[in-house]
Specification:
Two copies of one chain form a homodimer. In chain A, 43% of the residues lie in helices and 13% in strands. Chain A is an alpha+beta fold. Chain A has a single domain, classed as NADH Oxidase. In chain A, strands 1-2-4-3 form a four-stranded antiparallel β-sheet, with helices on both faces. At the A-B interface, helix 1, helix 2, strand 1, helix 5 and helix 6 of A face helix 1, helix 2, strand 1, helix 5 and helix 7 of B. Chains A, B: Pfam families: Nitroreductase.
């Protein structure tokens, strides 16, 4: 059931995290569209320090069942999206990014030329504080969040999963020894086999504050 | 310019991060709606381990200018949203959450009753690995991402900001000595005073992989 005519507000309000999925495959065109919308998410310096591994084969999904301690999602959902955070992105050559932004007219030649140095200078502090990984995870989370909303608009369900053994997930997607890559999130994608009610939200006096944090 | 009739796909594709803002205040009703949509974002165990501090007063925004090394956003944008990650949430009493989810009919009485123990068991591993902060930051990022999309649909601009001195941001929102609270993101919100072109995205062969990570 596509929700093409629903407003963003309606989409956000009606989205629920879904635990059980129908086996119907996600059409390839739709899957490609959703991944493109995820990658439209902004990222720090447009570094795009995140990747998506699309796992559809049964062996890969079974490895993710094992990595999540036997959760049903990876077995039932036809697609598992593994969001990978690339904490070493800022050390890599991203000439393609600077050149493309300049060619698109989005960045001036001067801004593009300064970017490699700016990126290095910016990362000194997070590196010192051990937050390189967190920075990349944050960009991966924006992408995953955009996909959660886009998927629901297209009539598909997702459920952000944090309960997994990171080493096992990394092994499942072929990067057991990559210290520069981290798992940000697992996101099953497919047609929902259940409906879920809204579990409510805490009183806003506990979660929203004016001018200063209040508790 | 509200984009109430645009599809989610159009909203996501046309959203850009904006550096310069008009001083027009964000109407209170709209601000409340956007915050509500942010808080609709899912969170791990529905723990809602994130809060939003809404900074509109000039003194607070000037403190954020200083904390961001002189960036223009906090001075120009009428609203600065500070997303706070609460890494100690899982140790706190969240009886209100369990009780509300049960009352809404979203969780069974048994599931609600087991949640405090489940939450503690789940957090043992992240605690051991020093990832409690990252977990809370991830939930804050989903909320911030939902707000980015909702704001653009309502005709307002945002720009996720990572470049700040965390101690200074914490001082600006009144939590200089709270080790259990962390800054996930700064998000200026307001009417855009500029338009930005799309800077492009890396070739998908570098960012999307099937079954296994490929570079």
């Amino acid at each position: 059931m596509s929700r093409a005519h629903a407003t963003v507000s309606e989409i956000i309000r009606s989205r629920r995290s879904i635990r059980h999925y129908l086996p119907d495959p996600v059409p390839e065109d739709l899957l490609n569209d959703l991944i493109e919308l995820a990658l439209e998410a902004p990222s720090s310096f447009n570094l795009q320090a995140r990747s998506i591994v699309v796992v559809t084969a049964e062996a890969g999904r079974e490895a993710l069942v094992e990595a999540t301690g036997g959760q049903p999602h990876p077995r039932e959902a036809p697609v598992m999206l593994v969001f990978v955070a690339e904490s070493g992105a800022w050390r890599e050559d991203r000439a393609d990014v600077w050149e493309q932004a300049r060619r698109c007219g989005a960045w001036s030649a001067r801004f593009a030329a300064a970017s490699p140095d700016d990126v290095r200078a910016f990362h000194e502090e997070p590196q010192r504080r051990g937050l390189e990984r967190e920075l990349a995870v944050k960009d991966a989370m924006i992408a995953a969040s955009f996909l959660m909303i886009a998927a629901h608009a297209a009539g598909l369900a997702t459920s952000p999963m944090n309960g997994w053994d990171e080493a096992k997930v990394k092994a499942a997607v072929g990067i057991p020894f990559r210290d520069d890559l981290h798992i940000a999130l697992l996101l099953p994608l497919g047609r929902p086999a259940e409906s879920r009610l809204h579990p409510g939200r805490r009183d806003r006096s506990l979660t929203v504050f004016r001018e200063a944090y209040g508790r």
